[in-house]
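Tokens in:
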């Protein structure tokens, strides 16, 4: 899909948080790039699924090569989500990543139930914003 221009609908990923026990995110991701929603059972799985999505679309392009101590393991097979509404039991976020610089993401996240939107300059800041919404909500 080199040279493919993605429409605006591909730039927003809906993150449905169904559980936040012990500050561990569990839920589903929805983006038109996926044929169906993707489940995640931990915060790390959420980040890996999102990075895979961004790499698959090659948008926004990464400004640095991903480094690791070893080859990443193949993700464990997770059952496909049932046709659930794109709404989380705990919270729903609309996530837009505009840049991937300095080995992180920059963009905006909207907390749909709270009716608020904030910009973030790193994945850490994104997670802290989501945490504050989940603890307040």
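Residues out:
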């Amino acid at each position: 899909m080199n040279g493919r221009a993605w429409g605006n609908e591909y730039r927003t990923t809906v993150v449905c948080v169904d559980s936040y026990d012990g500050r561990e995110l569990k839920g589903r991701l929805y983006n038109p790039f996926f044929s169906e929603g993707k489940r995640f059972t931990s915060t790390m799985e959420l980040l890996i699924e999102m990075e895979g999505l961004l790499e698959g679309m090659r948008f926004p392009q990464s400004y640095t090569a991903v480094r690791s101590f070893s080859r990443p393991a193949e993700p464990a097979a997770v059952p496909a989500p049932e046709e659930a509404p794109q709404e989380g039991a705990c919270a729903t976020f609309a996530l837009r990543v505009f840049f991937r610089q300095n080995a992180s993401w920059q963009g905006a996240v909207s907390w749909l139930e709270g009716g608020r939107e904030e910009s973030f300059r790193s994945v850490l800041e994104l997670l802290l914003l989501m945490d504050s919404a989940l603890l307040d909500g």
